[in-house]
Amino acid sequence: MTSTPQLSVVVPVYNEQDNVAPLVGEILAALRGRCDFEIVYVDDLSKDATLERLKQLQATTPELRVVRHLVNSGQSTAIRNGVKAARGAWIATLDGDGQNDPADIPKLIAERDKTDAGVKLFAGWRVNRQDSGSKRWASKWANAIRSRMLRDSTPDTGCGIKLFEREAFLDLPYFDHMHRYLPALMQRAGWKTVSVPVNHRHRASGVSKYNNLNRALVGIRDLRGVAWLITRSRRTGIEEL
């Protein structure tokens, strides 16, 4: 691709060899003919055939670009490096496991196009989650605590499908697991956010990279850090004299 795309779809992956081709196909079906776009996959040093499958797809998918980590670094770093590599002014993110539906990306774009310019993040809201009962319960509990502490008015921050402005995202403070706190961080920066109901699907292949315990232990520490960042925020407009 030589022209600058309007949209970059960033997909972080780790050991998702059987989900790569179906998800790329769905992204193409959702976006071809609707806008100029690119797909940026970030391979977090997978141990399976994920990278090989992506290389094969590049031969027939001109929109597809592939970035590979030299060290396994986690989802937040993969998203950030994908956004840094992206050329579009707006970014759509998807989890690489196929549970997010690419057909929802046009819905997020339509929501953006009818909303004022002060909204820089459109976050997916999984109103009918297809996870296990224990994971849904843990997520509900975590969302309630997060909402109480951060007051971000967001019902679901863990959903992988989001649409946001690239420049606004790269201006946010970076830390591991920051992708779970994007609404609060965007609001801290002075921008507005909107939650949009989206589809959610069962994982078709592979296994989850998280469990409820490690999510909870990391989440408590991160919540305290984000709450501290919010209290230390200072914003003002400027004028040139």
TrEMBL record:
Q: Which domain of life is it from?
A: Bacteria
| Glycosyltransferase 2-like domain mapped to chain residues | 8-169
Pfam families reported in the protein's UniProt record: Glycos_transf_2
The keyword Nucleotide-binding is assigned to this record: no
Q: What does the entry list under GO cellular component?
A: plasma membrane
Enumerate the Gene Ontology biological process terms.
Answer: lipopolysaccharide biosynthetic process
**InterPro entries for this protein:** Glyco_trans_2-like, Glycosyltransferase_2, Nucleotide-diphossugar_trans
Q: Which UniProt keywords apply?
A: Cell membrane, Glycosyltransferase, Lipopolysaccharide biosynthesis, Membrane, Transferase, Transmembrane, Transmembrane helix
Q: Name one GO molecular function term.
A: undecaprenyl-phosphate 4-deoxy-4-formamido-L-arabinose transferase activity
Indicate what this protein is called per its UniProt record.
Answer: Glycosyltransferase family 2 protein
Q: Lineage from the top down?
A: Bacteria, Pseudomonadati, Pseudomonadota, Gammaproteobacteria, Lysobacterales
